[in-house]
Amino acid sequence: MAASAQQIRRHVLQTMAGGAAVMSLPIGGWWYWANKERSRVAEANRTKIRLPNTQDTYDYLIAEKCQPGDVLLFDRRCEHCASGPWAALACLASKLFLTGSESSFDHAGLIVPGYVKSKADLYEATNLLLLEATPQGIVARPLKDRLEQSFSKTIVLLQLNCPGERRNEESDPDGAQRASVERTRKHVERELRLFRDQWVALGSGDGQKKSYYPWIHSTISLGGALLYGMGLQDYSSGPVSPSAYLVLMGLIKASAAQSIDDKENRSIKPEDLMRNYQLLNKDAVRLRPGWRFLSPITIKEGPRL
């Protein structure tokens, strides 16, 4: 007797359910391992003995090299993505379609001023946060913690140099120029504080209103990378890379970058931040006259065991 349509549907559904269950086992095992690795590194950093005033610590590096407006680029290990399979898939798509032969940076973050909870925070050089678009939302986390707990293969610092500034140079500008640089830096810090609070509230919720961005971040990232890979990014209303787009919006807010065309802004990729627009005229960030990124500084390189 021929099987009824209902029996056929039931058999198909049972087969699909069995296949999904089999596939979920290795995925679940990987996810458990990724979270355990994250917890292990967090605990190791929490209990690590720290020697003050040593030049091999992230405290020293941050105090000496980092300022609000600087950018960090990450070459991530997608297998260590503890936010889930969908986030790991979005990471793989970003690596496949948004990186080229020049670099493999697939994520970006913007250094912003830290929260001021006491008078001491005003004078603490390491009181800096890294603002990022992530599967947890748009978050601002302590810069030192973010660097110590990262599993990325490589992390590169792009120092933002304002007009007249002489970062990493022994000679100082004259009095008038120094005053101009200080005014510009205060403006950058003020605007980035406002930008930080606005986007954290928008992307992670402000305690009163829940944000749905964490639920759609990986989908936006995956869709943006796929559309860019197919050359269809101009037909999308979303960014190619949410993390790079957030960094660019911050630079525009700080008056360091120009906003000429929204379509061009949405097409920004992490590695574009390393390119000089005046030389390439495309696939690069348009900084305002006098602003520039200094030569990249490698903060971390090599495998993490």
Total individual domains: 2
Shape: globular
What's the helical proportion of residues? 40-55%
Query: Structural class of the helix and strand makeup?
Result: alpha+beta
Q: What is the mean pLDDT?
A: 82
End-to-end separation in angstroms reads 61 Å
Query: Unreliable runs, pLDDT <50, ≥5 residues?
Result: 20-25
Radius of gyration: 22 Å
Helical element count? 10
User: What's the number of extended β-strand segments?
Assistant: 8
**Largest sheet descriptor:** 6 strands, antiparallel
Strand order of the largest sheet: 4-3-2-1-5-8
Order of helices and strands: HHEHEHEEHEEHHHHHEE
Quote the beta fraction: 5-15%
Task: Give an overview of the whole structure.
This protein is α+β, with helices and mostly antiparallel strands and 305 residues long. The protein has two domains: 49 residues; 245 residues, no CATH class. Helix 3 packs parallel to helix 7. The radius of gyration is 22 Å and the shape is globular. The N and C termini lie far apart (61 Å). About 2% of the residues have low confidence.
